[in-house]
Amino acid sequence: MSKVRVRFAPSPTGYVHVGNARTALFNWLFARHQGGTFVLRIEDTDAERSKPEYERQLMEDLRWLGLDWDEGPDVGGPLGPYRQSERSAIYQEYVQKLIAQRDAYYCFCSAEQLEAERQEALKEGRQPRYSGRCRKLSAEVVAQRQAAGEHGAVRLKINESSFFWNDRVHGPTTVSSEVIGDPVIVRSEGLPAYNFAVVIDDHLMEISHVIRGDDHISNTPRQIALYRALGWEPPEFAHLSTILGTDRTRLSKRHGATSME
Ligand code: GLU
Questions:
Q1: For residue 163, which of 40, 143, 202, 221 is within the disulfide window of CB 3.0 to 4.6 Å?
Q2: Dist. CA 207–CA 46, nearest whole Å
Q3: pLDDT tier for residue 254 given thresholds of 50, 70 and 90
Q4: Is 202 in the pocket of ligand 1 (CB under 6 A)?
């Protein structure tokens, strides 16, 4: 049996548009061509914007297109659950592990503080990125602030100076860490950030090839950093070109007319 395992991982926050459908199609074709497995994973960590109705509709849209999946929230599978909202305990385990091994730390910077830092960098013509201020907080200070009711976000420490991957579409790709501040992996409300949940899930679901839109290229170095911190081998990455609307901007929920339905 082929070890190729790919996934389509939509967020059920709106209707599927032709751009998402094209990403799903490439994944499905690759899985079927290689005799591999096509996984449907629902990325519904944004509880406010995710709706069961959108999830139902996206499954209907995929079926209408003739794209069937081998594992997913409705059909099950050995490496589920396949809805991120049902995987909180798994994420929690890995956050604790990263904190314990000092690859992640609590950050109490307020939105205002971060915005001020950003503006300052822009004014000085620097690329804005998180300064790493909270890296230096001692365990005692963290404990005190948490006891006082501050939750804090969790950030991953970026130690590498650059990241490299051989993209299956773009070819050899290198990104300097100068443009990457320590990314948030858990938000202060306790929700796992996309870059974190996606790595845990892609690894545990044994995804061999991450095939997605090139709007995610800037996330890939952050995800590679997480694979490294967890001692995991990253999958292959293939970033597809994205379809643009007639106004030359990326398709989005705004281009309502292009929803699959
Ligand atoms: N939920 C993400 C999206 O819809 C998935 C991105 C990815 O494939 O990694 O954009």
A1: 221
A2: 23
A3: low
A4: no
The reply to whether 136 belongs to the active site is no
Q: What local confidence, expressed as pLDDT, does residue 258 receive?
A: 67
pLDDT of residue 93: 98
Contact indicator for 60, 54 with CB cutoff of 8 Å: no
From residue 58, how far is each of 26, 75, 201 by CA, in Å? 16, 15, 20
CA angle centred on 153, ends 156 and 103, rounded to 5°: 25
What string of DSSP letters covers 20-68?
Answer: HHHHHHHHHHHHHHHT-EEEE-B----TTT--HHHHHHHHHHHHHHT--
Q: Is 206 helix (H, G, I), strand (E, B) or coil?
A: coil
Residue 121: its pLDDT value, please? Answer: 92
Q: What is the DSSP letter of 174?
A: E
Give the distance (Å) from ligand 1 centre to CA of residue 9: 5
CA of 77 to the centre of ligand 1 (A): 20
**Chain segment 157-192, per-residue pLDDT in tens:** 999 999 999 999 999 999 999 889 999 999 999 999
Omega prior to 81 cis, within 30 of 0: yes
pLDDT-based confidence at 255, cuts 50/70/90?
low
Is any ligand 1 atom within 6 A of the Cβ of residue 212? yes
Residue 224 CA to residue 163 CA, distance in Å, equals 7
Q: 3-class SS at 160?
A: coil
Measured in Å, residue 78 CA sits from the centre of ligand 1 at 22
